[in-house]
């Protein structure tokens, strides 16, 4: 088996159907399998997958165990030389799956790869970032990345300077369509299940890099990503989970004390308003001096 495609799904039946149909309409020429891990959906997702796509290997989790643990369930059943973790709100384009297999075949040290992601309207969805650290968090908290998006210093974390139009070694492609070498995971381990959602793929990419594996972005083929269709069903909880997972990542991989990690992340919430208020105060004060 060359490729195992793993989709972890929760309450997005219609999008899951479109995702599976897109794979079957644009299959690779090599042997492949599709594994759907249903995280206790209540909208009939599992029943739809079973009835309409009998060739899919369906794993039903009795409860929502999260993205990392869900993918790990799929990994246990996967026999592919290469693994493709796809969100259920994605659609594969023609040639994407063959390209992924060929890219791994060409480079024995390639541990993971990402492809170009498109929004629902066909526009580019930025999908590559650098590993976060104290400096990039503070640039974001101060709004410097927004003020100077083309700067490779201030725009480092979100890689806002990168046009996603060239092959490039990167730190972390977005987990919505992340391809992995099975052999690399045997060395580094799979997703850390302490992350319920978010930063699980960042953590995994960090471990791959630390072990000497390459991670690359390829713009030649595309996957449409209908952005956050599962998470928007519990927006407040998922937003909170993002900060919790971010803190876990900083403590685990950057070895920051928990209090420092939380202080840095809190600054992303309160520092921008404080700076904005200060600037407005300075502008008003300057206008008063000028006018009076």
Give a short overview:
With 292 residues, this protein is of the alpha/beta class.
Core attributes:
292 residues, alpha/beta, Spore Coat Polysaccharide Biosynthesis Protein SpsA, Chain A, 2 domains, 10-stranded mixed β-sheet, two-stranded antiparallel ribbon, 12 strands
Task: Please characterize this protein's 3D structure.
With 292 residues, the chain is of the alpha/beta class. The chain has two domains: 3-127 and 164-233, Spore Coat Polysaccharide Biosynthesis Protein SpsA, Chain A (Alpha-Beta Complex); 128-161 and 257-292, no CATH class. It has helices at residues 13-25, 45-52, 67-77, 96-106, 134-141, 144-147, 182-188, 200-210, 235-253, 258-291, and strands at 3-9, 32-39, 57-61, 82-86, 90-92, 110-118, 124-125, 128-129, 168-169, 172-173, 177-181, 214-225. Strands 1, 2, 3, 4, 5, 6, 7, 9, 11 and 12 form a ten-stranded mixed β-sheet that branches. Helix 1 (13-25) packs parallel to helix 2, helix 5 packs parallel to helix 10 (258-291) and helix 9 crosses helix 10. It is globular and about 75 Å long. The N and C termini lie far apart (78 Å). The mean pLDDT is 92.
């Amino acid at each position: 088996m060359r490729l195992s495609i793993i989709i972890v799904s929760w309450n997005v039946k219609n999008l899951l159907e479109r995702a599976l149909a897109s794979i079957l309409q644009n299959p690779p020429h090599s042997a492949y399998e599709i594994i759907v891990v249903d995280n206790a959906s209540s909208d009939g997702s599992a029943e739809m997958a079973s009835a309409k796509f009998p060739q899919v290997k369906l794993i039903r989790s009795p409860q929502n165990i999260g993205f990392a643990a869900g993918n790990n369930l799929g990994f246990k059943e996967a026999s592919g030389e290469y693994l493709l973790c796809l969100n259920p709100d994605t659609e594969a384009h023609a040639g994407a799956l063959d390209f992924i297999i060929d890219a791994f075949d060409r480079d024995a040290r390639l541990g993971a790869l990402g492809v170009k992601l498109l929004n629902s309207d066909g526009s580019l969805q930025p999908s590559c970032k650098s590993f976060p650290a104290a400096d990039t968090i503070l640039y974001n908290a101060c709004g410097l990345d927004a003020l100077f998006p083309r700067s490779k210093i201030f725009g480092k974390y979100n890689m806002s300077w990168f046009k996603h139009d060239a092959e490039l070694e990167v730190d972390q492609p977005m987990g919505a369509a992340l391809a992995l070498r099975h052999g690399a995971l045997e060395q580094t381990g799979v997703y850390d299940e302490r992350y319920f959602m978010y930063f699980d793929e960042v953590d995994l990419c960090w471990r791959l890099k630390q072990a000497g594996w390459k991670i690359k972005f390829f713009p030649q083929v595309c996957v449409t990503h209908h952005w956050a269709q599962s998470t928007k069903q519990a927006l407040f909880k998922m937003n909170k989970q993002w900060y919790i997972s971010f803190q876990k990542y900083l403590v685990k991989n950057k070895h920051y004390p928990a209090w420092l990690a939380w202080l840095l992340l809190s600054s992303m919430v309160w520092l921008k308003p404080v700076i904005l208020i200060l600037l407005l105060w300075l502008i008003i004060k300057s206008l008063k001096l000028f006018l009076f």
